Amino acid sequence: MLINTGADQVLGTFGLTGVTYFPHSTGSRMHPGTARFLATVGLPSSRLLSTKHAQKP
Fold first, then answer.
1. How far apart are CA 2 and CA 51, in angstroms?
2. What is the pLDDT of residue 2?
């Protein structure tokens, strides 16, 4: 299934602080399209979906 989601849609729904972007580094083993998506559109982050790892005490 392909979904055409743009950065404006994600930002409009989750706000600037609700989106996590990932650096796009040259030479990464990640699929180029996936890396570009994560760097430009990002992933939403909320209490139900966390893109950050929890730190152990």
1. 21
2. 65
Contact, 16 vs 45, CB < 8 A?
Answer: no
Distance, C-alpha 37 to centroid of its chain: 7
The pLDDT value recorded for residue 55 is 46
- φ, ψ of residue 37 in degrees (nearest 5): -60, -50
User: Quick check: 37 and 7 in contact, CB under 8 A?
Assistant: no
CA distances from 22 to 6, 53, 56 (A): 15, 14, 22
User: Three-state SS string across 21-36, please?
Assistant: CCCCCCCCCCCHHHHH
